[in-house]
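User: I'm designing a mutation panel for Extracellular solute-binding protein family 1 and want to avoid disrupting the core. Could you give me a predicted structure to guide residue selection? Please restate the sequence first so the numbering is unambiguous.

Assistant: Good idea. Sequence first, for numbering, then the predicted structure tokens:
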Amino acid sequence: MNMKTKKMLAVGLACSLAATVAAGCSGTGKTSGKSSDSGVTQLEFFSSKMENVSTMQKLVDKFNKQNTDVQITLNSPADAGTVLKTRMTKDDLPDIIAYGGDNIYTELTEAGILLDLSDQEVLKTINDSYMQMVYDINGDKEEKAYGIPFAANASGIIYNVDLFQKAGVKIPETWDELIEVCEKLSAAGIQPFELSFKDNWTILPSWNSLAPATQPEGFLDAKREGTATFLGTHEEVLEKYSKLVNYAQTDFMGTSYDDGNRSFANGEAAMLINGVWTVPEIKKTNESINLDMFAYPATNDKSKNKVVSGIDVMLMVTNQCKNPEAAKRFVAFMLEPENSQLYINEQFAFSPVEGVVQEDASVAGLAKDIGDGKVTDFVDHYYPNGYNLSAILSEFFLNKANGMDESENIAATLKKCDEQYDILNTR
């Protein structure tokens, strides 16, 4: 999940960054899609996540070995969003793109540069919930597969199984049960939550769980159209979030992500609100910690309490690809169960491919809901590009820590949410 606002880079810097991973920077001398003297089609695979380069390269090498008529070159530059936008302005698109299911994908669909992959046989293997996410973030909202989900992430509440057992509490399934768990943990001398708001992106996971379950139906479309506001619709989100913070350590605004993970790993709190990506970081401190995850119980209506799970990697083919059939063959290869399983095992992710299951016990509490399609997307994927919600929420909690009246704080924060959204909303 991309949490940070990116800064524009010069074209020359973008190319030099790309060159560190790819065999060369695609620019005016682009050769991808063209056949070499040996008749082999050369295609560029542009991937947005530098942290998965080793796994992606394994899959590329495997494909290249099995397909002697096509050779894929992996290009995974730093600051991929900026690089990709720069290349769009230069009419210099890669052949295949791997990117997250967020507002960058929406911009790509609106630019009309992606091929419709709706006729691909592999779509039959993709979980319907994740395909609906694709349709929801299409610029035109049509049920067209301009991208196919390859990997998913998820967030919720990470909990220390041993501390839950010590306090005699069970996994909460409703909001009231979550508060009851916090009270029982506190009574047993156990700190319920560890929060790390010094790195303000860590404030977003709770919002992404609370907002979809409590906001009015159709809010996102209405907000884009200018007929709805956060003020008057999202008070419950901040009221509940503020209440949970009361069960965290005193210095929640001064605790960093790394320090919070270490404290949780050392048993200083029973719960931590974040995503599956945090589990490997926790285990760097305490490899033997007994932990699991559960869906954030945002309401007292169990049917609304879903796992927040978004498309972390989506595969796309651009309209500049000189050999789209070869590119589609590569996409189908990536989504084969064996290859999808390799990716989710190495990258600690979930797969949208039906039958491919993340079996690590540390996230077992989420696996069934994800497999059953009981998921909802990261709501901030639907906000305008550049919308700095984490900074707005950081100010809210700083005001709380400094003793500001809660009603006043909530109203001022939601007003700011509206003002900044409306500045960036171009629809």
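For picking mutation sites, this is relevant: Confidence is low (pLDDT under 50) at residues 1-32. The first helix runs from residue 11 to 19.
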